# Entry
Amino acid sequence: MDRPALAAFLRARRAGLQPSDVGMSSGPRRRVGGLRREEIAVLAGMSTDYYVRLEQERGPQPSEQMLGSLARALRLSNEERDYLYRLAGHGAPARTPLDTHVAPQLLRVLDRLEDTPALILSSLLETLAQNSLAKALLGDHSVHVGPARSSVYRWFTDPAERLTYPEADRARQSRAQVASLRAAYGMGGASSRAALLARDLQKASQEFSEIWALHDVGARFDDHKVLIHPELGELELDCQALFTEDQGQALLVLTAPPRSEAAEKLALLAVLGQQQFSSSNSNSNSNGNWNGS
# Structure
């Protein structure tokens, strides 16, 4: 681990970012350019003290998980992400269509979406980033770890996952989930994470095994969805997806027609979500751990 070079790189990348680059308000006049250390810590989901120690060459060796969080917070390119890993004494992650390093070009769009739910998904349907309204609508997906980070896995192993959709739509959703995983399997092959996930699900779910045997393939997202929120009930939303060039990641944006009932519910959800966020912040502790990618 090259602590001096790591600290210098973190400082340089932080100095090169402005609040508007990451969807933050500039606030009062700043004495120096770039983001503050505490702002990077918030974006990376770690304690400010932990991040400060890294910049001061005093921190322990960051885990690969922590480096992934930093790479996302600092909006690093793939080359910069690889460099960060090597400075910290880790090998650079493999570059495949199943890579979970969030595409900076999708993050730049997500950062500017404040009034509509939006999230970035991997080809395994892992949520790599969510805005606050997506968390209020769908829940905070960063709490999931291991195979459960994939919505495909949760769909077939956790009954609560299905409550987001009307009962009449769940059979179709089951087939769509499996078809998406089959598409990821095609990109990664028999030794990929997609293949491992499929094997785990074949052991865990008879329903999955039966649908998997159909060999349906598809990675399209419906352009119209009916979602159920536990407090607000059904919301009819339009869904648009923006893919990276290699189709490995997608930005999903959920919108409602102006002045519609769903639009009113989204506006209310924005208020409810902010209240929940403030409450969770007041009850949380800063321990430097984060379960995202």
Summary: The longest strand covers residues 233-243. The domain at 3-87 is CATH 1.10.260.40 (434 Repressor (Amino-terminal Domain)).
